[in-house]
Structure formats: structure tokens, C-alpha cells
Design goal:
Blueprint: E1 7-17, H1 19-26, H2 30-43, H3 57-61, E2 64-68, E3 71-77, H4 88-105, E4 109-121, E5 126-127, H5 129-140, E6 146-148, H6 150-163, E7 170-172, E8 178-180, H7 197-212, H8 217-236, E9 254-256, E10 277-279
Parallel strand pairs: 4-6
Antiparallel strand pairs: 1-3, 1-4, 2-3, 4-5, 7-8, 9-10
Helix pairs in contact: 1-2, 2-4, 7-8
Length: 283
């Protein structure tokens, strides 16, 4: 009997924008080489844990990362016993955010999608419609964002409804799509978990401002959109204390914290109605 069998997985497909040029430069630039080393040998293998549970979630969830060229694939089976307590979709999302932080630390952006569907995977390969729809979701994404497909969004909403659990790592874009807050400001998601969130965001601000002066209109447009996500994080989260980091741009609105008010300092949200708070990203 063949071992080839499809099963339900949460799958993220991430494309690193501008990665080939970074790799080329890293062959002679020690600083860039060190950032590549951190991404592949520290951030990607890093364990996912919570303050109350430092167990190795990836080993229990079956979470795996594959990488080739400028693409990274993260997957975890949905029907694992442990995934009932810690959803595979959430584990894959958290790992995607950790990777997106590390890539922004390299001065680059990520575009991707997360899907829930059938795949067959080995230690070196993955195939199936669950993976293919994640790839299609990334190809259809216009801006440097990580979008949840309809299947992933449906699974998230079912879990929220059934368990009453609210996750602060999701937002809504200007098209009403659920996306990851790919720079969610939590220390354990940073390239260096012991570092200060504010220092990282100061660095991110400099990177964004430099790229807003890009000569290529298409590249500049990506950074303009991303500046909107950055501004929304600065304005929304109390973890970022320096609100002057907001970048002065005429930007579209992004709804932060899709159905998920933050656990702390949420009293300022009381005058607002609706499941998500929309930050109007204008001066």
C-alpha cells in the first residue's frame, strides 16, 4: 500500500521581494551575510512558544518550513491532536510573522498567502491543492502583504466563534481581505527576541523612508502601502511607545486587529463601533 496520502494542512507560501539582489550582495557584504545566517539558522528553526508554555510547539504540531530560492513554505497538519488546543493556522501565521520581521530587518518585503487545504508533504517537498491555492493567493496579491485565502479566513472565523479566542495578529486591508499583521510588535517575533520593540521599529522607519524615495514607481508603490501598515501598528499598539515614528504620507486605511482588541490599553477603543478599528492613515 502506498504511503502517498493527502491530508488537511494550514499552508503559508511566502515570496521574498528583491531577495536575489540581496543574496548577490551578501557574497561580499559581511553584514548582509550575517542577516541571511540569522534568517535561515535562527529565525526559521526557532521554536514557537508562549510565556506560560515553553514547550516545542512545532514538534507537537508537525510544523515544517521548506525554503528554495526566494520562497518559503510553512505548513502544519490541521488534524493533529495538539492542534485542537493550538490551531495549526495560528502556528503557521506566527511563524510567517517571525520570518517577515527578519526579512524587513534585511531591508526587504514579503508577499504571500495562507491557505487551509489538502497537501502531501515530505521532508523536502510539498504538493496538493492546499499548497497550490496558497501560491495562487500570493500571485494575486498586489501589495507586500500576507493574505488569508477564503478557506483560511473561514477556519479562523469558525475557531473564533467556537472557542471565543481572539488573536491580535490579524488585520484587514483596504479591500476587506483578512491579512496577517506581518510586523506585529511582539518581542518573540523579532529577529532578536531579547531586543527592544521600539528600536526595531525605529530601524524599520528608516528602511521605509529610504525606499519611499525609490526611482522605480512599482517598487515605491509597494513601500507606500507598507508604510500604511507600519503607521497603523505605531498608532494602535501600546508596545510602540514613540508615536512620532508615524511616517507622514497620504495613505489608505488599514483596519487593525480583526475581531481582536489588544489585551492591554484598549479603553481608548470604547467610542468606536464594529469588530475592527480602522486607522485613517493621514496626518
Amino acid at each position: 500500500m502506498s504511503d502517498f496520502e493527502f491530508s488537511h494542512h494550514a499552508v503559508a507560501y511566502l515570496d521574498i521581494l528583491g531577495f536575489s539582489k540581496f543574496v548577490e550582495a551578501a557574497e561580499t557584504d559581511t553584514g548582509k551575510l550575517q542577516k541571511l545566517d540569522k534568517l535561515f539558522n535562527e529565525v526559521i528553526p526557532r521554536q514557537i512558544s508562549t510565556p506560560t508554555n515553553d514547550e516545542s510547539f512545532p514538534s507537537k504540531l508537525g510544523l515544517e518550513c521548506l525554503s528554495f530560492s526566494d520562497s518559503i513554505i510553512i505548513s502544519a497538519p490541521v488534524d493533529q491532536e495538539y492542534s485542537k488546543n493550538y490551531p495549526s493556522l495560528i502556528a503557521v501565521s506566527i511563524k510567517s510573522i517571525q520570518i517577515a520581521h527578519a526579512i524587513l530587518d534585511m531591508g526587504l518585503l514579503v508577499r504571500g498567502a495562507i491557505n487551509v487545504g489538502n497537501v502531501y508533504r515530505t521532508d523536502s517537498n510539498i504538493t496538493g491543492t492546499g499548497y497550490q491555492k496558497a501560491v495562487c493567493g500570493e500571485k494575486n496579491a498586489i501589495n507586500p502583504q500576507i493574505v488569508l485565502t477564503k478557506s483560511a479566513e473561514q477556519d479562523l472565523n469558525i475557531y473564533i466563534k467556537n472557542e471565543g479566542t481572539k488573536f491580535a495578529i490579524f488585520a484587514k486591508n483596504e479591500l476587506g481581505q483578512v491579512i496577517l499583521d506581518s510586523i506585529y510588535p511582539h518581542p518573540t517575533y523579532l529577529p532578536d527576541p531579547q531586543a527592544d520593540v521600539n528600536e526595531y521599529f525605529k530601524q524599520y522607519q528608516n528602511t521605509i523612508i529610504e525606499n519611499l524615495a525609490h526611482d522605480d514607481p512599482k517598487a515605491k508603490a509597494k513601500w507606500i502601502w507598507f508604510a500604511g501598515l507600519f503607521n497603523a501598528n505605531v498608532r494602535y499598539f501600546s508596545e510602540i511607545k514613540d508615536k512620532s515614528l508615524t511616517i507622514d504620507q497620504e495613505l489608505q486605511s488599514i483596519a487593525m486587529n480583526y475581531l481582536n482588541p489588544p489585551a492591554k490599553d484598549s479603553s481608548w477603543m470604547e467610542p468606536f463601533n464594529g469588530p475592527a478599528i480602522t486607522c485613517t492613515l493621514k496626518k
